[in-house]
């Protein structure tokens, strides 16, 4: 059994929480006491049916206001897969939450109300999903019961969205007509839509192929922590020096020739150690400890790669940045702290090339700053070199966060598009 | 463990993620500690810590907030495990907080030290100047926890502000704090109750005996079976009887209920957990039943 992480985008009105409630309920991941609490609250509020969205809106303020404020994580499993849902609010003021949820997602579900069709916010969700390089996208056309389960309406929406998605360089795209409220095509195929020949949403989630979404080609091992037992009583451990980290790309094997950055020195992998014994190979997302043949001075923030396949060693970076605070604005000469893989550096904004309208994709080159929930292309200069790949090539070595030194808040997320 | 198509099982992915989190803390904080209660989640967390730094010892102390109302079997287990690992254990005592006048003991039949623990915990964090505190909480336990970050910022009063959390992207964690503030770190955020049990089974990890079915003197309150013990106040209208029970969670004797069960092995517990229709906290924790937002309110104050 493997894990599929997926993000859901949409607003309360699109039936997103109802869909998640339905998936949890029909896969028996909701328990009787949770259901009783929701039924009680639904009754108290005078709702006619059990409001499954109450299952996911966990904070007091959310229940009071009937909105989703923050990313919530939900879990369920079928015999085939464990699922982690990042449930993200869909309104424009929560763009940062959607970016957050999408950053780790294998798949995103965008909900569209069949009556309303492709709205501005649907385009925004699709754009953000593509920007964050979520490998698989599902367009769930919801509330099919309210358009008489019309095939024509579904096709109309599919065509409109496909035309838009072609501009985005969107990933693997699947359309499924559903009714989250009544459960049509959610867990099993609906009898109300015999014209639909695809699978149910849950079946798609269970079977979509994700193993090859990881980068298994470019060896990238950011050194996270150096393990030195300093054990005085056990001689065999006295000289032990292991480089611990989580594999960010490629497949490593004992005996492989590897290169250390920033030194550029080459050596071989002596062993791949774990508590459970030495391994024949390591690949993403495994956390392992490497021992090397030669004694090289290696510390946290360094990178281990292959001599003929190296990341860019860069201090000047072009990136798409999503700004996440209303405290300060991003502008030329903003000074920030940048955390990339296991390396943290100070950085200064050299240039805001343009601000992108997330609804129309229009590039505003006259923009001089980015505010909360705005996205733009930025050139950064860092105080020390980073070992980076394009985000499109590797999400682990292509993504970074920006931290405001004054408040210690995480204020931005960056996706590298070019480096030198 | 691994197949040629490079798929990784869910337990391996969860373990790798938790190890990454622990190493990140060890690398970026000065004074971390790990909350160890002897409950199943903290036992799993401790095993992950062992793996993260092997062959070196775990590079931080363990801390237990001892209410004085714990199950004796669990305290025995705690001490044995600490000795095996040759780890350092800091015990923060709720009784000491009461004696020092920091908190007032609750009175009456439902008196519990659950809420008092928060003060003891925060005082200990301040006294030892811990800047990162590992907890075994999981997001599937409770809906307020479902919204919490893996690295959860606490101000210098130890408070959690759910509306003002740091965005958390990819596997990049913002570890920056000022003096007096700290981060609660939850390496098992993405594990479910079943994942915990499958991991205990796979790793062959020892757990306290009260997780397995045993005969115990209990009484019934609010549909829960509470243990008959000196620290638990019982009314005359709450008769004692013997039952075959086990515990799904391990907390204070005063607020942790047992469930009727005949499961004597981890396999049987897994079958039982997979078939149950009631959440672990709903079935066994009086402390979460106070209101819809009981956990959210306690967490804001600085609870685990």
Automatic annotation (TrEMBL), chain A:
UniProt keyword list: ATP-binding, GTP-binding, Nucleotide-binding, Nucleotidyltransferase, Transferase
Protein name listed in UniProt: Sulfate adenylyltransferase subunit 1
InterPro entries (UniProt xref): CysN_GTP-bd, CysN_II, CysN_NoDQ_III, G_TR_CS, GTP-eEF1A_C, P-loop_NTPase, Small_GTP-bd, SO4_adenylTrfase_lsu
The Tr-type G domain, residue ranges: 1-230
Subunit structure: Heterodimer composed of CysD, the smaller subunit, and CysN.
Secretion signal, residue range per the UniProt entry: none
Pathway where this protein functions: Sulfur metabolism; hydrogen sulfide biosynthesis; sulfite from sulfate: step 1/3
GO biological process, one term: hydrogen sulfide biosynthetic process
Entry-linked Pfam families: GTP-eEF1A_C, GTP_EFTU
Family: Belongs to the TRAFAC class translation factor GTPase superfamily. Classic translation factor GTPase family. CysN/NodQ subfamily.
Job of this protein: With CysD forms the ATP sulfurylase (ATPS) that catalyzes the adenylation of sulfate producing adenosine 5'-phosphosulfate (APS) and diphosphate, the first enzymatic step in sulfur assimilation pathway. APS synthesis involves the formation of a high-energy phosphoric-sulfuric acid anhydride bond driven by GTP hydrolysis by CysN coupled to ATP hydrolysis by CysD.
Top EC class, one word: transferase
Statement: the UniProt record of this protein carries the keyword Repeat: no
UniProtKB/TrEMBL annotation, chain B:
GO molecular function: ATP binding; sulfate adenylyltransferase (ATP) activity
Protein name: Sulfate adenylyltransferase subunit 2
Any coiled-coil regions, as ranges: none
Gene Ontology BP annotations: sulfate assimilation
Keywords: ATP-binding, Nucleotide-binding, Nucleotidyltransferase, Transferase
Annotated Pfam families: PAPS_reduct
Record organism: Planotetraspora kaengkrachanensis
Phosphoadenosine phosphosulphate reductase domain: residues covered: 32-257
Family statement: Belongs to the PAPS reductase family. CysD subfamily.
EC number, UniProt record: 2.7.7.4
Disordered: annotated span: 281-304
Subunit organization: Heterodimer composed of CysD, the smaller subunit, and CysNC.
């Amino acid at each position: 059994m493997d894990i599929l992480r997926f993000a859901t985008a949409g607003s309360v009105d699109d039936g997103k929480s109802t869909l998640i409630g339905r998936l949890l309920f029909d896969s028996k991941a909701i328990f009787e006491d949770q259901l009783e609490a929701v039924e009680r609250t639904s009754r108290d509020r005078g709702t006619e049916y059990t409001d499954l969205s109450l299952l996911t809106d966990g904070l007091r303020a959310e229940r009071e206001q009937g909105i989703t404020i923050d990313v919530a994580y939900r879990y369920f499993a079928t015999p085939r897969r464990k699922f982690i849902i990042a449930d993200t609010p869909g309104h424009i003021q929560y763009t940062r939450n959607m970016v957050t949820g999408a950053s780790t997602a294998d798949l995103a579900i965008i909900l569209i109300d069949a009556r309303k069709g492709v709205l501005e916010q649907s385009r925004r969700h699709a754009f953000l999903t593509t920007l964050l390089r979520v490998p698989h996208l599902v367009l769930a056309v919801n509330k099919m019961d309210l358009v008489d389960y019309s095939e024509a309406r579904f096709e109309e929406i599919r065509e409109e969205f496909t035309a838009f998605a072609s501009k985005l360089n969107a990933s693997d795209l699947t359309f499924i007509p559903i009714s989250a409220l009544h459960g049509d095509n959610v867990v099993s195929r609906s009898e109300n839509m015999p014209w639909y020949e695809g699978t149910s949403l849950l079946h798609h989630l269970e079977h979509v192929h994700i193993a090859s979404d990881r980068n298994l080609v470019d060896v990238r091992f950011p050194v996270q922590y150096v393990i030195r037992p300093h054990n005085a009583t056990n001689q065999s451990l006295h000289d032990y020096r292991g480089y611990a980290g989580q594999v960010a790309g490629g497949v490593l094997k004992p005996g492989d020739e590897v290169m250390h950055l920033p030194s550029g020195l080459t050596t071989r992998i002596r062993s791949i150690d774990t508590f459970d014994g030495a391994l024949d190979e390591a690949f993403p997302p495994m956390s392992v400890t490497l021992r090397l043949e030669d004694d090289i001075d290696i510390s946290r923030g360094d990178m281990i790669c292959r001599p003929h396949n190296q990341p860019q060693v860069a201090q000047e970076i072009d990136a798409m940045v999503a700004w996440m605070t209303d405290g300060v604005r991003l502008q030329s000469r903003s000074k920030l702290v940048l955390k990339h893989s296991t390396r943290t550096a100070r950085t200064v904004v050299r240039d805001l090339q343009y601000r992108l309208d997330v609804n129309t994709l229009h590039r505003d080159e006259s923009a001089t700053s980015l505010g909360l929930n705005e996205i733009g292309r930025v050139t950064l200069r860092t105080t020390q070199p980073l070992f980076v790949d394009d985000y499109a090539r590797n999400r682990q070595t292509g993504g970074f966060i920006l931290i405001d030194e004054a408040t210690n808040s995480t204020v931005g997320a960056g996706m590298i598009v070019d480096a030198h | 463990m691994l197949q040629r198509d490079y798929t990784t099982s869910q337990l391996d992915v969860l373990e790798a993620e938790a190890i990454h989190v622990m190493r990140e803390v060890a690398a970026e904080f000065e004074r971390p500690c790990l909350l160890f209660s002897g409950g199943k989640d903290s036992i799993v967390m401790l095993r992950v810590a062992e793996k993260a730094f092997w062959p070196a010892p775990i590079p931080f102390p363990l801390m237990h907030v001892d209410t004085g109302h714990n199950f004796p079997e669990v305290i025995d287990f705690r001490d044995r495990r600490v000795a095996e690992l040759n780890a350092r254990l800091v015990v923060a005592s709720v009784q000491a907080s009461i004696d020092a006048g920091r908190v007032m003991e609750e009175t009456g039949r439902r008196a519990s030290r659950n809420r008092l623990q928060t003060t003891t915990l925060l005082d200990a964090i301040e006294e030892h100047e811990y800047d990162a505190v590992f907890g075994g909480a999981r997001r599937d336990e409770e809906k307020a926890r479902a919204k919490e970050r893996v690295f959860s910022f606490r101000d210098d009063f130890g408070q959690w502000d759910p509306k003002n959390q740091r965005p958390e992207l990819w596997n990049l964690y913002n570890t920056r704090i000022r003096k007096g503030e700290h981060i609660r770190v939850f390496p098992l955020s993405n594990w479910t109750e079943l994942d915990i049990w499958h991991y205990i089974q796979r790793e062959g990890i020892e757990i306290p005996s009260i997780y397995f079915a045993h005969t115990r003197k209990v009484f019934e309150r609010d549909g829960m079976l509470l243990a008959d013990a000196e620290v638990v106040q019982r009314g005359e209208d709450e008769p004692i009887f013997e039952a075959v029970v086990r515990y799904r969670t391990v907390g204070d004797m005063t607020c942790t209920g047992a469930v009727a069960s005949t499961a004597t092995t981890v396999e049987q517990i897994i079958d039982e957990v997979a078939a149950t229709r009631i959440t672990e906290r709903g079935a066994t924790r009086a402390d979460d039943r106070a209101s819809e937002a009981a956990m959210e309110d306690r967490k804001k104050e600085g609870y685990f």
